[in-house]
Amino acid sequence: MKHLSRFNITSLTLGLAFLYLPIVVLVIYSFNASRLVTVWGGWSLRWYAEFFNDAAMLSAAAMSLRVGVVSATAATILGTLAAVALTRGESFRGRTLFSGMLYAPLVMPEVITGLSLLLLFVAVNAERGFWTVTIAHTTLTMCFVTVVVQSRLGSLDRSLEEAAMDLGCDPLRAFLKVTLPLILPSVAAGWMLAFTLSMDDLVIASFTTGPGSTTLPIRIYSEVRLGVKPEINAICTLIIGSIALVIIAASLASKLSSRQGESAAPL
Amino acid sequence: MSGRRLFTTPARRAAVAPLLWMLLFFLLPFGFVLKISLSQTVIAQPPYVPVFDPAQGMAALKAAFATLSLENFRLLAADHLYILSYLRSIVVALISTAILLAVGYPVAYGMSRLPARWQPIAMILVIVPFWTSFLIRVYAWINILQHDGILNKTLLALHVVSAPVVWLSTDTAMYIGIVYSYLPFMILPLYATLAKIDTTLLEASADLGGSRLATFWLVTFPLSLPGVGAGALLCFIPIVGEFVIPDLLAGSRSPMIGQTLWLEFFTNRDWPVASAIAIVLLVLLLAPLLVYERMQRRQLEGRR
Amino acid sequence: MDAMLHRETKRGGMTDDARQAPDVAGADIPLLQLDALVKRFGRFTAVDRLALDIKAGEFFALLGPSGCGKTTLLRMLAGFETPDAGRILLDGQDIAGIPPHQRPVNMMFQNYALFPHLSVQDNIAFGLKRAGLPREEIKARVTEMIALLKLESMERRKPDQLSGGQRQRVALARALARRPRLLLLDEPLAALDKKLRENTQAELMRLQRQLGMTFIVVTHDQEEAMMMADRIGVMNAGHLVQVATPRQLYEAPNSRWVAEFVGGVNIIDGKIASRDAGRVTIATPDAGGIIAAAPLQALTTDQVCVAIRPEKVRLSAHESAPDDDDAGGINRLAGVIAGISYLGGQTRYQIRLDSGAQLRASVANIARLDLDAFDPAQRVVAWFAPDDCVVLDR
């Protein structure tokens, strides 16, 4: 019964074209030799060279990478713990508040989250910089990790854990030996999501960072406000390229692990 | 059952660290926002009110309470710049959500009707742009929409227009940017509900004389309403507080509330007013936020 | 004796005919004719050159193991699959090209496919509204269906507020409401528990008589098919291997496969040694010479097998036992009781013959006290009448 009507094909094609065309244009123009962004001056890697010579931009990129790795790791640990508590903890006191605090940041306007965290940091006289941004990003991204891991845990057959305990594991070991390996792909996906969200964030970082520690999005934003610059196209292309690589690697990895998962599931 | 119970206590212990983290870095900061919003604007560097010192005891607490004022909220109510800003944000969010639904529904429907082995690929294709930076995606549109950008060049070449059209710094550009950035958030929940619909229900409808159109409106659409609701909230709430897209793509004549907050905070350095703006925004969004949370909870926790 | 079996099956056939409602359309044209129907999925042929006639008012069952093509056949009748070749004639008209929503055929889905967002009455009215009936008519028919299937006081409930049995009745009401020429039921009882299933079988038979409608039911449960259907079509690997009344199917299977698929059976391989006067003698390595009634259909070779139902195997404790059989001392096999399963109404014995082969016998427990029961390892003689043997190709 599932035949594709012309309407379905058209809407899918148009939708995907709308999603990808701007990115394709951006990537193509990053190889433009001309300084005028809109005039095609032939293929060139000039703007990539420019980026690798731009010390301010490079240090911002390094800062973003550091914040991204640290905050994503912290967020993955906290978010996985939260997901376990929500799916395996049955009902406990403060559960509604707990899950509420975890789901709200997913949609909360970033200006509110950013402002409130800044006011906290100011109130406790924290020195603003790497750590404040990292804490802020951990807070935001652990919620995404929670949702990703929670949906996997929720669909996991609980008799597997019960079987592990029946065979002599205590709950902690049952989790480490059975549950964790099975949810590992989604934990990894959560880490990557947290990392890209951190690399991407402009608003919260703008609020919580201090003088001297600029992240890549903040730097890009201040350039973009002044208009289109070919160098920005080159940076964006690099970012898109690395994300594409990560996604391809991730989907290959999940394909492998899902094959494992399938063979493991009937056991 | 007992196996589940065995797991319960250690699982609850797992909640401690994330719970403390969220109390400290999510809930507690709202207290500071509230406090600052009730404080006098101080022209200082940095412009914040001194921290309450518990060593001074009750007297200091009373004194601290005495300094609280609703001045900032009065300002928000009196100056129609703020009221217009809130109104504009809500209108923009409503219009954007409607466009997103109109664009996202056909795409999600098309995805759900693909052969099963193509569906995960289509889903990855929709998610990938979401993983590429938000800022990049907005920036990509500046490339296209600028005065001598690709859109104007194409339109001129096709003789649709005789002179370049001004796209940047218009509402059109802003709506394009918003729809573009939020489209995956609309498509994914819609697709999730559409893909879950049991195809035998569609066959049953056909069997009972329902044409394709009747089947869509009487079976598919009503059953996809939870997805419509989830997608709409997932887009509407953050769009109301959106800053980057209107800042980069829309004109500066009538700012959205996110821009106003940003302006008060970074340019005017008026932290108390910025805080008051955030509090009012939060109150406005409370109802949709609560509805969204309930849907999330039901979706993620209701299955067993 | 062959004639007797023949008579008996004939009689069975006649009673079956008498049970049927009178033909509505011309008596000679079958309601449904399938002609060389073929359906392939890729390289897999799900239905292979299948031909079948079904008369109006018949209760027909399609029986087969999973994957035999019975559901594909049903879905072709409903219009959800398009045949790759062949014709589907309903009242003499080819409906193969008609989309499902325009066919006068309705289906009851295996999972019921009740619309979860609609109440019971809206589910039942769904098809009537699509047919564009006037509002009063729809109301009247919904009321009629609700009464017919005893769904009073459930009208406003949603499907998830109903029990499994109630859901099944709503699905039936919804499919019947349009008064289809043909009602298709896909494993209608599979989701019900055993007790409920038995009641529902009787209910389906009552409805079918009362409405005089033609039912085609797909099932993998032979007991269910035999209990409800006037005729059963047994399918295997896309082919219709036998179409017969339940009795014929059990007593006169036309192939070894059918004999083994429907009910329990003892199969003894052998070779035809001689034929005379309605009897054949079959030489078997396991059971010596077996004398059987001459086969009804032509055999392809001398290499045959003999099928004997376990309840037709009789046991006796004495070596010299019953000479009262009119054939006089034939078809006797000596052995020991190797296994006993007591099942209440009957007891099943596993007998190891002296040749080493196994034989199954089931004995009805007609008396409460076990005077006739056998003990483990007891020596017995198993014997059966030539008329109870069915000779088939191997």
Describe what is shown at a glance.
Chain A has eleven helices and no strands.
Task: Describe the protein.
The complex is a heterotrimer of chains A (267), B (304) and C (394). By secondary structure, chain A is mainly alpha-helical. Chain A is built from 11 helices and no strands. Chain B has 304 residues and is an all-alpha fold. Chain B has one domain: MetI-like fold (Orthogonal Bundle), CATH 1.10.3720. Chain B has helices at residues 2-14, 16-37, 57-67, 71-78, 80-112, 119-131, 134-145, 150-157, 171-196, 199-207, 212-240, 244-249, 257-267, 271-301. Chain B is globular. Chain B starts with a helix and ends with a helix. In chain C, a hairpin with a 3-residue loop joins strand 16 (332-342) and strand 17 (346-353). The longest helix of chain C is centred in the N-terminal third of the chain and has 18 residues, at 2-19. Chains in contact: A-B, B-C. The interface between B and C is medium-sized, with 17 and 24 residues.
What's the alpha carbon Rg of chain B, rounded to whole Å? Answer: 25 Å
> How would you sum up the major sheet of chain C?
6 strands, mixed
CATH class call of the largest domain in chain C: Alpha Beta
CATH architecture of chain B: Orthogonal Bundle
Determine the number of helices of chain B (DSSP H or I, runs of at least 4 residues): 14
CATH class of chain B: Mainly Alpha
Q: Oligomerization state of this entry?
A: heterotrimer
The ordered string of helix (H) and strand (E) elements of chain C is HEEEHEEEHHHEHEHEEHHEEEEEEEEEE
Distance between the termini of chain C: 23 Å
Integer tally of domains of chain C: 2
> What is the strand content of chain B?
under 5%
Biggest sheet statistics of chain B: none
